[in-house]
Amino acid sequence: MIELHASPPGPDAPAPHDWRWQLRHAARTVAELERLFELTDDERQGALAAERGGFPLAITPYYASLASPSDPACPIRRQVVPRALEATTVPGDLADPLGEEAHTVAPELIRRYPDRALLLVTDHCAVFCRFCTRSRTVGSGAGARSLERLEPALRWLREHPEVREVIVSGGDPLALATPRLLAVLERLREIPSVEVLRLATRAPVVLPMRVDDELVAGLRRLHPLWVMTHFNHPRELTPESVAACARLADAGLPVMNQTVLLRGINDDAAVLAELFRGLVRARVRPYYLLHADVVRGTGHLRTPLARGIELMRELQGRLSGLALPRLVCDTPGGYGKVPLGPEVVVQRGPGSTTLRTWRGVDVEVIDPPT
Ligand code: SF4
Q: Which of 159, 137, 231, 217 minimizes the C-alpha distance to 185?
């Protein structure tokens, strides 16, 4: 699958199956992007803005190899190549759409729900997705957070035993060197009240060679640990990414997927059905279909809320329950996720409820006598 459109830079090529090589050779400048893609004026302007200090750009050679060099509408390319439209703000846009700053309880620790917290261990990623919820901070250059920097967050977790799950995120925690990542996870494991760890990463999608033996051997010692990944399009399900998911699943690590609904990229029932079925075959559970967060400068990538509901109506009943994720909107301001879907309750009466099935048939369900 790794077959580049243009030679990546650097004297030490080729070593494309090494994840460090992939990171070293990620395209980060307009000139590097021009070697991979026939850029439109809109893309060139967007890339120039990114290079001049906006939300940075980064595309691994592997992920670039999945994209069309000539078609700007390519769903892979649209996820990672900046556009001038990113400078446009539309009504509803927010720099911090999930109110994370208001919910920060210690440096790098965000708590928006009673029993969960989010620990940000780096601001770096293998690729920078143009719809990133955390584009206000991701790629800002601070890099991996030291254990000293994370100590107040660890102390806060020790003092708040009601938090049972910690989601380790960033940036992408798999941008960290394995010993460094494991050191953070081991510190979390030492906190008795933290029952479950989750690792939120796009590496299986954009840098699948990152899921190597050393990483998997380290992670499997830390059960229960769930891996939350982020496939958005069936073209991302390559032999390499499927093998990365298999290495995680073989080590007993449950892998769940969050897909972001993106305009012109995956807002199509056939595309989503192919993606969700492919994920199940790869032993990855489609968990959420997320209405895209209202991140500043992403209006051109978002769909109306009703589009996701229409898509769920098309998919329900046609996909098995295992393959069908839950559609959710993470509400602006950080008030939490709300599940969405086609209306199924058409009438409520004393002792009975009428439900609309996926076939469009209304069926009355009678309650037992009280
Ligand atoms: S990998 Fe995740 S954190 Fe990094 S840019 Fe993409 S969506 Fe944002």
A: 217
> Which pTM value belongs to this model?
0.94
Q: How far apart are CA 81 and CA 130, in angstroms?
A: 7
CA distance 288 to 334: 17
Instruction: Find the length of the chain.
Output: 370
The per-residue pLDDT for range 35-84, each reduced to its tens digit, is 999 999 999 999 999 999 889 999 999 999 999 999 999 999 999 999 99
Q: Is 213 a catalytic residue?
A: no
Cα distances (angstroms) measured from residue 362 to each of 259, 329, 359, 365: 31, 27, 9, 10
Active site residue 129: yes
Domain residue ranges of the chain, discontinuous segments joined by +: 19-87, 104-340
Best residue among 123, 167, 172, 296 to mutate for probing ligand 1, ranked by most atoms within 8 Å of CB: 172
Task: Establish whether 116 is a catalytic residue.
Answer: yes
Tell me the two tokens of residue 97.
């759409």
CATH of domain 104-340: 3.20.20.70
CB of 288 shorter than 6 A to ligand 1: no
